[in-house]
Design brief:
Length: 621
C-alpha cells in the first residue's frame, strides 16, 4: 500500500514537471531561431575564453581578472555550448530554455514545500494547487523573456535554478534531524555557492533564509540560528565574500556611477522610484523593453517623490502588520524586497530598471497570485453550484495564462536580432541611453553612419559619461571626414575610461588615417610598454610601419605578433604580402603563406585564399 502511494506521488510529480516543461517549450519555441544580438558579442561571439574546455582554460575561467565580470559558471556554460554548437545561436537558445524549464520546475517544488510550512492549516491538495498555479504563472510571465531569450542573460537562468534549488533543499532539510539534516544543509551551501558564481546578486540568499525563519516562528528564529551557527556563519561568509567581489568588479569595470542628484541622499530617494517601478514590471504586462527610462522628479525633492516614499512605507507597514494574521503576505513582500536590494541603486549603477532584475523576485508575485486563485477555487456559496467557483478560478487562470503567453511569444520576436530589439526599445523609450547607444551600434555595423550618429549623439546627451558611445562617435566622425569632432570624442572617452586600451587603439587608428604617423606610433608603443606580449598591438604597429614603407620595422613587429599568437593568420599573410610586393622576395612570400596555411587550418576561407596565392606564385616562377 505504501509502495502504491509512493508510485502515485512520483507519477503525479512527473506529470507536473511534464506540464511545466511543455508550457515553457511551447512558449519559447519561436525564440530558437533568434540570432545573436550586439548585446551578446562581448560575452559570446568575441569571447575566446569559451572556445576550450581543457583544464587550463577552465582554471582561467574561474580566475578573477580585473575589469571583467566574475560569473564563471555562466562562462563555463558557454564553453560547453561552444564545444557542441560552435557559434550557432540555436544551441545557446536551447540551453537557456532548458535552464528556464529547470528553474520553473524548482519554483513548483519550492512553493509546495514552503506553503506546507507557512499555511499549516491548509490541506496538502491546496498546497499542490497553489504551487502549480504559481509555477505556471512563473513559466508564462512575459517579464522573464529577457532572462530566457537574451543569450547573455544566461546568468539569470543559472542563478534562478541554483537559488531555488538551495531554498528547496533548505526547506526539505529542516524537516530532517541529525546527520541527514547536516547532509541537506551541506548541499544548500553548495547550491548557494553555484548561484553566486552564476550571478553575484544571489548574495541575498542568507537574508531570504532569515526571513523564512522569522515568518515561520517570529519568536523562535534565534534558537534555530544558535543550533546551526556553523551553517549560518558559512553562508554569511559566502555572501560577504561575493559582496566584496561584486563591488570590486563594479569598481574595476566602471559599473559604479556618480550619485544621481549629486548627493547620497538624493540618490537614495531615486531608490524609491526604482523599487516601485520594479514592482510595476510584475503587474503591468505591456511595453516590456530591453531598455527603460524612469521619470524621476527634477528637482528630486518634490510631490511625486513624496508620494513614492509614502506608498513604499505603506507597503512596508502593511506587510509588517500582516505577520500577525498571515505569514505568507509578510514573507512574499519581504522576499520581493530582499531579492531586489542589489538593484535598487543604493550603490548607483548605470541601469535603473530591467526585466531581468525581477526574475527571482517574481517568485513572490506568483506565490500570492496562486493563493488568490486557490481561494477562489475553494470558495463555496449555496447560491451557486458546487463546482462553480472551481471552474471560475480555472477559467480566470487560463485567461491570464493565455494573455501572458501571447505577450511572451510576441516579446520573443522582438529579440530576433539587434535591429528588431533596439528599434522596439527606441520606439517605446526614446530617451533611453542604452536603446540609443545600441541602435547607433546597429547602424554602425550596417555601414549607415549618418543614422548611427543621430542615435549616438542622443545617447551621450542623455548620459554624458557614456564613454562607449563617445568612442563609437569618434570612429564614425573620422569616417565622415570630421576629424576635429572625432578627436574630441576619442579624447573625452579616454578621460572617462583611461584604463580602456581599446579606445587608445582607436585613437592610433585615427592618427594613422590622418597620416599623423608619429602620434599613432607613440600611442601603440605606450600600450606595448604595458603589455609587450600583446600580439594584436605588434600586428597593428607592423601594419603602420608597412604603410610608412619601413619594411624592416614592419617585418620585426609582424614577426613578434606571429610568435606571441601563432594561431592568428593575419601576421603570416601580411609578412607574405610585404615580401611579395615590397621586398620582391617570392620564396619568402611563399614561405610565410605556407606557414599560415599550416598554422591556422581552421580559418578555411583565408587558408583557401593563401593556397591560391601560393599556386599563383608557383606558376609565376
Amino acid at each position: 500500500m505504501q509502495e502504491c502511494r509512493t508510485v502515485k506521488r512520483l507519477n503525479h510529480r512527473f506529470l507536473i514537471c511534464f506540464i511545466i516543461a511543455g508550457c515553457v517549450g511551447v512558449l519559447y519555441i519561436n525564440s530558437l531561431g533568434n540570432q545573436f544580438t550586439n548585446w551578446d558579442d562581448q560575452m559570446i561571439y568575441s569571447n575566446y575564453q569559451i572556445r576550450s574546455l581543457d583544464w587550463k582554460n577552465i582554471k582561467e575561467i574561474f580566475t578573477y581578472v580585473k575589469g571583467s565580470t566574475y560569473q564563471p559558471i555562466r562562462v563555463l556554460s558557454y564553453a560547453v555550448d561552444y564545444y557542441f554548437w560552435g557559434l550557432n545561436p540555436l544551441g545557446y537558445h536551447i540551453t537557456n530554455v532548458v535552464l528556464y524549464i529547470l528553474t520553473s520546475t524548482m519554483v513548483f517544488f519550492t512553493l509546495q514545500r514552503l506553503l506546507s510550512h507557512l499555511r499549516r492549516n491548509a490541506p496538502p491538495d491546496s498546497h499542490k494547487r497553489v504551487a502549480l498555479f504559481g509555477a505556471l504563472l512563473f513559466a508564462a510571465h512575459p517579464v522573464h523573456v529577457e532572462a530566457v531569450t537574451w543569450l547573455a542573460a544566461r546568468k539569470e537562468g543559472l542563478q534562478g535554478c541554483f537559488f531555488f534549488l538551495a531554498f528547496y533543499l533548505y526547506l526539505r532539510g529542516r524537516e530532517e534531524e541529525g546527520t541527514k539534516r547536516l547532509f541537506y544543509l551541506g548541499f544548500v551551501l553548495f547550491s548557494f555557492l553555484l548561484a553566486t558564481l552564476s550571478k553575484p546578486a544571489a548574495i541575498v540568499f542568507p537574508a531570504v533564509l532569515l526571513l523564512y525563519e522569522i515568518s515561520l516562528k517570529k519568536n523562535e528564529w534565534m534558537d534555530f540560528v544558535k543550533r546551526h551557527w556553523f551553517f549560518i556563519i558559512f553562508s554569511v561568509f559566502i555572501s560577504f565574500l561575493f559582496t566584496y567581489i561584486l563591488v570590486r568588479v563594479m569598481l574595476d569595470a566602471g559599473g559604479i556611477k556618480p550619485y544621481r542628484g549629486g548627493t547620497f541622499f538624493n540618490n537614495l530617494l531615486v531608490s524609491f522610484y526604482v523599487f516601485l517601478y520594479n514592482m510595476k514590471l510584475l503587474f503591468s504586462t505591456i511595453n516590456y523593453s530591453a531598455a527603460y527610462t524612469i521619470p524621476v522628479s527634477n528637482p528630486i525633492w518634490g510631490v511625486r517623490t513624496l508620494i513614492f516614499i509614502g506608498i513604499t512605507f505603506l507597503l512596508f507597514g502593511l506587510s509588517l502588520w500582516s505577520l500577525r494574521k498571515t505569514r505568507v503576505i509578510f514573507f512574499s513582500f519581504f522576499f520581493l524586497f530582499i531579492t531586489l536590494v542589489p538593484y535598487l541603486n543604493i550603490i548607483p549603477i548605470s541601469t535603473l530598471l530591467a526585466d531581468r532584475y525581477v526574475f527571482i523576485a517574481s517568485f513572490s508575485y506568483c506565490l500570492l497570485l496562486g493563493i488568490v486563485f486557490n481561494k477562489l477555487y475553494e470558495l463555496k456559496q449555496q447560491r451557486f453550484s458546487e463546482n462553480f467557483f472551481e471552474l471560475l478560478s480555472i477559467a480566470l487562470l487560463l485567461f491570464i495564462l493565455v494573455g501572458y503567453s501571447s505577450m511572451t511569444i510576441r516579446q520573443n520576436q522582438i529579440w530576433e536580432n539587434s535591429y528588431t530589439l533596439w528599434a522596439d526599445a527606441v520606439e517605446k523609450y526614446p530617451d533611453s541611453n542604452t536603446a540609443n547607444a545600441l541602435m547607433g551600434l546597429v547602424y554602425m555595423e550596417l555601414g549607415m553612419d549618418e543614422k548611427a550618429v543621430g542615435y549616438l549623439e542622443k545617447a551621450i546627451q542623455v548620459l554624458p559619461y557614456d564613454y562607449q558611445s563617445r568612442n563609437n562617435l569618434g570612429i564614425i566622425y573620422e569616417k565622415l571626414e570630421q576629424p576635429e569632432k572625432a578627436l574630441r570624442e576619442l579624447m573625452i572617452a579616454i578621460r572617462l575610461k583611461p584604463e580602456d586600451d581599446t579606445i587608445k587603439i582607436n585613437l592610433s587608428v585615427f592618427y594613422q588615417r590622418q597620416k599623423e604617423y608619429q602620434k599613432a606610433i607613440e600611442v601603440l608603443q605606450y600600450l606595448l610598454s604595458k603589455d609587450n606580449d600583446n600580439a594584436n598591438l605588434h600586428f597593428r604597429l607592423g601594419l603602420l610601419f608597412k604603410e610608412m614603407d619601413q619594411c624592416d620595422a614592419a617585418i620585426l613587429e609582424l614577426t613578434k605578433a606571429m610568435e606571441f599568437a601563432p594561431q592568428m593568420i593575419n601576421p603570416y599573410e601580411e609578412l607574405g604580402n610585404i615580401y611579395l610586393t615590397q621586398v620582391k622576395d617570392i620564396e619568402k612570400a611563399k614561405f610565410y603563406y605556407s606557414k599560415g596555411v599550416r598554422a591556422v587550418p581552421g580559418a578555411r576561407s583565408r587558408v583557401a585564399q593563401l593556397r591560391w596565392m601560393i599556386q599563383d606564385l608557383e606558376c609565376y616562377k
